[in-house]
Amino acid sequence: MSNIFTRTELLLGADNMTTLANSRVAIFGVGGVGGYVVEALARSGVGTLDLIDNDTVCESNINRQIIATTKTVGRDKVEVAKERILEINPEAKVNIYKTFYLPETRDQFDFTKYDYVVDAIDTVTGKLELIVQAKEAGTPIISSMGAGNKVNPEMFEVADINKTSVCPLAKVMRRELKKRGVKKLKVVYSKEKPLTPNIDPNETKGGRPAPGSNAFVPSVAGLIIAAEVIKDLTNFRNDDKVN
User: Fold this and answer.
1) Interatomic CA distance for residues 165 and 162, integer angstroms
2) 142 forms bridges with which residues in the sheet?
3) pTM of this prediction?
4) Greater pLDDT, 28 or 237
5) End-to-end Cα spacing for the chain
6) What is the band of 204 on the pLDDT scale with cuts at 50, 70, 90?
7) What radius of gyration, in Å, describes the C-alpha atoms of the chain?
8) Residues 6+ apart with CB under 8 A from 39
9) Among 36-50, 56-70, 143-157, 206-220, the least confident range
10) Neighbouring residues of 69: CB distance < 8 A, sequence distance ≥ 6
11) At what angle do helices 124-137 and 168-179 cross, to 10 degrees?
């Protein structure tokens, strides 16, 4: 095995590292949360990563997105993320899709090819379609709930969507998923009540005020998601013995 992952193998064992090397994970959205998911999965030895995002890096991303620097502003996020992955693990396979995932673009993706799917996108319609498609394919999925306008990274929890509380996005998702017959969904969410940001009328996203964010909340959410993916792919838990 490459020396890159020897420290991880000491904890997970050789068999689990082989499992990760042979796994293919799709990350939908590679921004504040998704970028850290990608980073951790690449550094954990996941062999194939599919990155889906149509956004470009902008200056306002630099405060919280791991792929955003003054040198990457203006570039496609998936291109920057791919370069970073290959600098970490040159043996990784990276597939990029410069598109936003929406009901109109769903046919571009065959979810039966994935071992795991990460939902780190913003739009409710896209999230719902993504979750339904993954469920129909029988592919495990974990979904990120709202991380904007929050400042306490200690408030994140992993739970089934039906056991969430406080989070406004999770409330909407619970209701809409129930209509679509989705009974279970693993999510990462925060019980912290969102703050009301000081809104600059020039800072809007999709016609809505852009949410406030920081370096530590989206990153923690992304790293928690990545940890869940690794544990689920390997069936590894803290009391397991490494081989």
Assistant:
1) 9
2) 118, 186
3) 0.93
4) 28
5) 14
6) low
7) 17
8) 66, 84, 88, 222, 226
9) 206-220
10) 62
11) 50
How far is residue 227's CA from residue 202's CA, in Å, rounded to a whole number?
A: 37
The closest alpha carbon to 219, from 159, 127, 147, belongs to: 147
For residue range 207-221, what is the model confidence (pLDDT) as tens digits? Answer: 567 899 999 999 999
Cβ atoms of residues 149 and 56 within 8 Å: no
Nearest to 118 by CA among 228, 236, 43: 228
Question: Among candidates 226, 194, 225, 233, which has minimal Cα distance to 212?
Answer: 194
Query: What amino acid occupies position 87?
Result: E
